[in-house]
Amino acid sequence: MESRSVKIRDGLFNLELLQGGSGDPLLFLHGSGGVRQGPYLDMLTERFTVYAPSHPGFGDSDGLERIDDIIDLALFYHDVMDELGLESAHILGHSLGGMLGAELAALCSHRVKRLVLSNPVGLWRDEEPVVDFFALTPTEYLDHMLYDVDSPAAKEAFATPESREGVMEAMYQRLQSFSAAGKFLWPIPDKGLKRRIHRIKAPTLIIWGESDRLVPPSYAEDFQSKIADSTVAILSECAHVPMIEKPEEFVSLVTEFLKD
Questions:
Q1: C-alpha distances out from residue 5 to 59, 75, 123, 149, 168, Å
Q2: What range defines the domain where residue 208 resides?
Q3: pLDDT tens readout for residues 181-220
């Protein structure tokens, strides 16, 4: 996929964007760790024109100080779609990006053809809370994120840099991403989606890793019960990042759902 910078709102924002493929437009909204490139993105480009932006405050995208809350961020993405010439698109959101995708679809249903939510945050159960990942050590974070931290896919996606400079850069990127994510998720990721989620009209697929220790799979039932036209797929032997741990199965589910 090619990387480029896109100016939004007459240059108030500079958005880092990965783009590739051909076919129906698919907007990928990443989670708190930023855009993690992997086989799943390349596989999706075989069927879709994939747009994978870094949210303001993540990667090389700026302008986070001009975004107040998750509603602001959702409205920002309407501007992004305008700039990209997308009257409508399929939306695939993961974790934080899942909450964002749901908000985007609730605010303006005609812009979302079909919606895929992978391990989304945004709802809350007092008896089964979402883990405060801001308080986890890097090792604890990976243990919650992944089904098998020693799998080849996990080691490739979350590889530790060999050089000291690489380690320092990785630490900086993690701090930057978590600081930006905190604006929308801290202290808990309940920002009122439950009051708007009923407005989602797009057919919706909810994908969850069976062993997710960050956002319990039971939340899939909550999302399904609140989105009228929705179905759930639970993937075994994966946790919070099924697109990384089970890319073939994940992409197959997404592709079959979106082509319908």
A1: 11, 19, 33, 33, 25
A2: 2-259
A3: 999 999 999 999 999 999 999 999 999 999 999 999 999 9
Residue with tokens 């907007």: 27
Residue partners of 154: CB distance under 8 A and separation at least 6: 142, 146, 148, 244, 245
Residue 86: C-alpha distances to residues 130, 199, 200 (Å)? 33, 21, 19
Candidates 244, 248, 158, 240; CA nearest to 207 is 240
The CATH number given to whatever domain includes residue 252 is 3.40.50.1820
Number of folded domains in the chain?
1
Query: What gap in Å lies between CA 108 and CA 91, rounded to an integer?
Result: 13
Answer yes or no: are the C-beta atoms of 207 and 58 closer than 8 Å: no
Residue 253: phi and psi, rounded to 5, are: -60, -45
